[in-house]
Amino acid sequence: MASVSLRGVSKRYGDIDAVRPLDFDVAESEFLVLLGPSGCGKTTTLRMIAGFAQPTTGEIRIGGSDVTALPPRLRNIGMVFQNYALFPNMDVAENVGFGLRERGLPRAEITARVDELLAMVQLSGRKNAFVGQLSGGQQQRVALARALAFYPKLLLMDEPLGALDLKMREAMQMELHRIQRSLGITTIMVTHDQQEAMSLADRIVVMAGGGIEQAGTPETLYSQPRTRFVASFIGKNNLIPGRITEIAEQDCIVRVAEFFDVRVRRVRNVQPGQMVDISVRPEHLQLMLPPSPGVNVVTGTVEARRFLGNVVYYSVRLPDASYLLVEDPMTGVSVGEGEHVGVGWKVEAGILFSEEISPNERSAPGSGAIL
Fold first, then answer.
1. Which of 55, 177, 327, 341 shows the greatest Cβ crowding within 10 Å of its Cβ?
2. Each residue of 207-217: pLDDT tens digit?
């Protein structure tokens, strides 16, 4: 039995479809992330699961029970908000034990549970500190401990790390992963941060325009995107426009950047003359200096170079004024700005998108090829 199930769940505000009908399940103990840009419907979806927003249509089940019409307090969920919503007039122990006191538990039981939770989030030494005396990461841990205090069936988190700086956010990602795994609690988190989603999730639901673009493991979404939107939104990518000039049994020949014919694996329902896009990840591109002819090789000029320690990113301008982003590991060979280079890739590294562009994909982010 799925821990959480949504069937035909939608939300409409007047003439606006904030969330179009959704169908998905969350397995027991799974860490699911709702990922997408601002306005895609991910937070509204989380609020409907929590009971803070009533669906226009559909059914929500938690632990096999229909909770669509139940208020939040009867759904047995823990919630961590983006702003943590801690009480500044209470110390850490009082914040964590607040929900337990509201439920009328004995004082000794509350104290034992609070001590257990503070040990789990590594804040035992701060139990008497007030919120204003805590760092952002410590406040986040207090909010998490409070959400877990009454043994909820489901943990919901809305951008819980958004207020933290980069290093603290990365550290808290590891903490969240450790705690979620140790407790085995079913978790649904909302974020717009791709790296955060990839590092935490067992499975990601990518949303855009109020609907689901694709759901799958981080590995599947990265290596096998089904739409242009997912290819562009998950990680760095190059979407190379072109026109099919020839179709073989397994491959297509595509004219790109006005001058170059490249080969890509064929997909269904493509025809000569059709406009398509080829998706190629930056790490699958190879710089060639000097340029040398070959299969799937284009030439251009290095317009920008960005050194990031273990890798260097190059932005290569092609003859049609488009750009390719190339990720080059530190091999000891440095290519300078202004140099004429070749850029090549293996046939199997390219993914062909031939379908008509959907409304979601029209708002997809760019490839990020310009540094």
1. 55
2. 999 999 999 99
Euclidean distance between CA atoms 221 and 216, whole angstroms = 6
pLDDT of 165: 82
Rounded-to-integer distance, Cα 318 and Cα 9, Å = 45
| Beta strands per DSSP E along the chain | 4-13, 16-26, 31-35, 57-62, 65-66, 77-80, 154-158, 186-191, 203-208, 211-216, 238-247, 251-256, 260-265, 275-280, 286-288, 297-307, 311-317, 323-329, 340-344, 351-353
Least confident of 183-192, 267-276, 321-330, 359-368: 359-368
Q: How confident is the model at residue 361 (pLDDT cuts 50, 70, 90)?
A: very low
Across the range 3-30, mean pLDDT stands at: 96
Looking at residue 269, which CATH number applies to its domain? 2.40.50.100
How far out from the chain centre does Cα 292 lie? 38
Taking the C-alpha atoms of residue 158 and residue 80, their distance in angstroms, rounded to an integer, is 6
Check whether residue 195 and residue 300 sit in a common domain.
no
Domains: count for the chain: 2
Domain end call among 201, 228, 255: 228
Burial class (CB in 10 A: 0-12, 13-18, 19+), 7: middle
Is the pLDDT at 51 greater than 60? The verdict is yes
Same domain, 131 and 105: yes
Mean confidence (pLDDT) of the chain? 91
Q: What's the burial of 206, exposed, middle or buried (CB within 10 Å: 0-12/13-18/19+)?
A: buried
Whether residue 275 is found in the same domain as residue 200: no
With a cut of 80, say whether residue 224 has pLDDT above it. yes
Residues 38 and 153 in one domain: yes
The reply to whether 368 falls in a domain is: no
